[in-house]
Specification:
Keywords: Signal
Organism: Kitasatospora paranensis
Shape: globular
CATH topology of the largest domain: Jelly Rolls
Structural class: mainly beta
Pfam families: CBM_3
Protein name: Cellulose binding domain-containing protein
Distance between the termini: 29 Å
InterPro entries: Beta-glucanase-like (IPR000757), CBM2/CBM3_carb-bd_dom_sf (IPR008965), CBM3 (IPR001956), CBM3_sf (IPR036966), ConA-like_dom_sf (IPR013320)
CATH architecture of the largest domain: Sandwich
Oligomer: single chain
């Protein structure tokens, strides 16, 4: 999704000079040969969110498990009652392998009374000599989404917009400080390590939990069974996408238990036909959502480059601007970019709410700039603490409060055009998004392997459709 607008106030040159003086490691760092590089993409004295980005570098001669490390970024809170939320936008090591917690300093100073502590799960792996973690694009913001002040934060340097050593953050290894200088009187003490991951074990599931499974064994979008099985095929006009485009039921077709959703355009609104299939009942909330989806980078004829959006998502209605009961969890693949992106990008986005006019979005997202052309297993799990997105069995992103859904949701697939700015040709061209199956189980957090086993079980039993999920 497009980034929220950020303030562009310049930081003073003196702050930049002070930061440069502290950009070398203390003597203790030489022993463990670990360093921290920092940059920020939110440079203003005030901002809607602070964006400290990091790389941890191993310049030593031994391999270092990342789970041994804790990094602290120090800041001055905007008030004693203000709370903050952590988010990871993207990381080479995977956002699901990075943790962020907040702490309070025992000896507050004029520039710091809190800290953000970054840790790593065992899934982040190790750093061999000469390696670094790669980009960790992190951020934090006020829980009430008010503007925060960062110019008075100890670890902030708005002038550092490219990665360089930064001594105003600390790095601990097994509780000992190996890099950086904390605010005066606040040498970090060892913090308890998270409990060992139980990812090697399989959590128990209820075999009788209410579930929906659809193998899409229909003859056409007009097949009466589509409606009988609780699906609504969108028609007519209306958002999202290009004003004046048409939602075309005839362009949703079925073959060999695979649904094909075709998007066609000639570069004009009148010549654009989009597709959408949505559950009629709004009855899905916590649990596991899964689908096998084939994304399409290349049109079936004509020039490429249109700003296409190919999706699998869940959502509730927005009944008023900034409706607190709104929620949405998205997989959105943009094969040709859009929203300011220039090429392939996958977004997983969790929404708390938004105001359409003037635009104000309260959401968080994880992104990866890569091609996802072809078949992929997509999965979302939601419980009372986290929304976890998986692609092909691997954690793609993890989002927490305040983005958890408050009310029952719909399940939706749609295929639409963001705008007409991708390219200007009038030659008709089509893109296909295909769906092999959709599965949901209520109040159960399943692993990708468990989802695969459930789907295989349905197919072995010859079950093309079942829905035991009660009405919301």
């Amino acid at each position: 999704m497009p980034r929220r607008l950020r303030a562009a106030l310049a930081v003073c040159a003196a702050a930049g000079l002070a930061g440069a003086a502290l950009a070398t490691a203390p003597a203790s760092a030489a022993t463990d040969a670990l360093s921290v590089q920092y940059r920020t993409s939110a440079t203003g004295a005030t901002a809607d969110q602070s964006e400290p980005w990091f790389e941890v570098v191993n310049t030593g001669s031994t391999t270092v498990p990342l789970s041994d490390l804790k990094l602290r970024y120090y800041f001055k809170s905007d008030g004693p009652a203000v709370s903050y939320r952590f988010a990871c936008s993207w990381a080479v090591k995977g956002c699901g392998n990075i943790t962020g917690t907040f702490g309070t300093l025992a000896s507050p100073t004029a520039t710091a009374d809190r800290y953000l502590e970054i840790g790593f799960t065992s899934g982040a792996g190790s750093l061999a000599p000469g390696q670094n973690t790669g980009d960790m694009q992190l951020r934090f913001y006020r829980a009430d989404w008010q503007t925060l002040t960062q110019s008075d934060d100890y670890s902030f340097n708005g002038a550092q917009t490219t990665y360089a050593n930064w001594g105003k953050v600390t790095l601990q290894r097994a509780g000992a400080v190996v890099w950086g200088t904390a605010p005066a009187g606040n040498d970090p003490s060892p913090s308890p390590s998270p409990s060992p991951s139980s990812s090697t074990s399989t959590p128990p599931t209820d075999p009788n939990a209410p579930a929906l499974f659809d193998d899409f064994s229909y003859t056409a979008s007009s097949d009466p069974a589509v409606q009988q099985h609780g699906w609504t095929v969108k028609s007519g006009q209306g958002g999202p996408g290009v004003a004046g485009a048409t939602w075309s039921p005839a362009d949703i077709t079925f073959s060999n238990s695979v649904m094909n959703m075709r998007l066609t355009t000639d570069g004009t609104a009148a010549g654009t036909k989009e597709t959408e299939l949505q559950t009629t009942a709004r009855k899905f909330k916590n649990g596991t959502y899964a689908a096998r989806v084939k994304f399409d980078d290349t049109p079936t004829g004509g020039p490429d480059g249109d700003h296409v959006n190919q999706t699998f998502f869940t959502f509730t209605p927005l009944n008023a601007p900034m409706d607190p009961d709104y929620s949405e969890q998205d997989f959105e693949y943009l094969p040709n970019g859009g929203w300011g992106e220039q090429s392939n990008i996958m977004y997983t986005t969790s929404w708390e709410t938004y105001n359409p006019d003037p635009w104000n979005a309260v959401n968080t997202h994880t992104e990866n700039r890569a091609s996802y052309d072809g078949w992929h297993d997509l999965q979302i799990t939601i419980d009372n603490s986290a929304i976890t997105y998986y692609i092909d069995g691997q954690v793609f992103g993890v989002h927490g409060e305040p983005y958890l859904p408050e009310t029952q949701q719909w399940i939706d697939f749609n295929h639409w055009l963001i705008d007409l700015n991708g390219q200007t040709s009038s030659t008709p061209r089509s893109y296909d998004e295909q769906v092999d199956y959709v599965y949901y189980v209520k109040d159960q957090v399943l692993t990708p392997a468990q989802v695969a086993a459930k789907v295989a079980g349905y197919r072995t039993a010859g079950t093309a459709f079942t829905d035991t999920v009660p009405a919301g």
